[in-house]
Specification:
- This protein is α/β, with parallel strands linked by helices.
- The chain has a domain at about 145-270: Rossmann fold, CATH 3.40.50.
- The protein has 11 helices and 11 strands.
- The strands form 3 sheets. A 6-stranded parallel sheet has the order 1-11-8-7-5-6. The chain has a 3-stranded parallel sheet with strand order 3-2-4, sandwiched between helices. The protein has a two-stranded antiparallel sheet with strand order 9-10.
- Helix 7 (about 175-185) links the parallel strand 5 (about 165) and strand 6.
- Helix 6 (about 145-155) packs across helix 7 and helix 6 crosses helix 10.
- The structure holds guanine.
- The site of guanine (GUN) has 9 residues, from strand 4 and helix 6.
């Protein structure tokens, strides 16, 4: 292996330890325990597992966790009423509606209903709009792309002036990742299913963020020697030789790309743990905005 391994698990653990200290401090100084409410609609096993991990991480950091579950056939009115109730609950400083929602629900309306100062996912249109604009401050930055940027910074990547390529343009990762890179003065190319000469475009990247959801799509000859490669993908693939009959793989063919890249995240063990660490950080920030009264300046 020639690339430096960017250990997301270790970096996230350090961040979580600091959050636990800050949570304790807030409790001592203000008598306030930060609280995160999760909203899970339906029984998608992957969503159930993600929400469980987020709740466990909260508990370990001393953050109160308020789980809410609705059946797969919940109505738009039921989901909206629940969000409204959580908006009104002073013990709740962050609201996380796990996506995707069942198809019959209007995701845009639900996300737009979350109070700006509790929008710990950073998916409210006003937070995303502020993220997109120069000189504006979103209350929260979306967790996964923010985690990816922190990993780049921790690994010593020079983002300023770099050619960055983002593979994928999703609302949750690709789009906000591109915005965060622009704010840090990278020259950003966003690639998607219609992009021509994809390997060639990727080979120009000093920084490559892969967030397409296609197992091991990025091959060694797509990567510029010495590039920083951040793999956001988490794909379950069949593997008869594995004990369970499947294994998890990122969007990057790790075994071959690690021989070309300068630094690379594994998947699992890279961006995933950072998403959770950033969510805890945002929840703590939600509580801080309230206890310090800063929230009034930002909404
Ligand atoms: N589904 C996949 N990633 C995320 C995320 O970061 N937040 C929420 N709410 N749903 C998701």
């Amino acid at each position: 292996m020639t690339a430096k391994l960017i250990d997301g698990t270790a970096i996230a653990a350090q961040i979580r330890d600091q959050i636990a200290v800050d949570v304790q401090k807030m409790q001592t100084e203000y008598g306030v325990v930060p609280g995160l409410a999760t909203v899970l609609v339906g029984d998608n096993p992957a969503s159930q597992s993600y929400v469980r991990m987020k709740r466990k991480a909260c508990e370990k950091a001393g953050i109160a966790s308020f789980p809410n579950e609705l059946p797969a056939d919940a109505t738009q009115a039921q989901v909206e009423a629940l969000v409204q109730q959580l908006n009104d609950d002073p013990k709740v400083h962050g609201i996380l509606v796990q996506l995707p929602l069942p198809k019959h629900l209007n995701e845009e309306k639900v996300l737009g209903l979350i109070s700006l100062h509790k929008d710990v996912d950073g998916f409210h249109p006003l937070n995303i709009g502020r993220l997109a604009m120069k000189g504006r401050e979103p209350l929260f930055i979306p967790c996964t792309p923010h985690g990816a940027i922190v990993l780049l910074e921790e690994a010593g990547a020079k983002i300023d002036g770099a050619n960055a390529v983002v593979l994928g343009r999703s609302n949750i990762v690709g789009l906000p990742a591109a915005l965060l890179l622009i704010h840090r003065n990278a020259t950003v190319t966003v690639c998607h299913s219609k992009t021509k000469n994809l390997p060639e475009v990727c080979r120009q990247a000093d920084i490559l963020i892969a967030a397409v959801g296609r197992a091991e799509m990025v091959r060694a000859d797509w990567v510029k020697p010495g590039a920083y490669v951040i793999d956001v993908g988490s794909n379950r693939i069949n593997d008869p030789s594995a004990e369970k009959g499947y294994r998890w793989a990122g969007d990057v063919a790790f075994d071959e790309v690690k021989e070309v890249a300068g630094a690379i995240t594994p998947s699992p063990g890279g961006v995933g743990p950072m998403t959770i660490a950033m969510l805890l950080k945002n929840t703590l920030r939600g509580a801080e905005l309230v206890v310090t009264g800063r929230v009034k300046d930002l909404i």
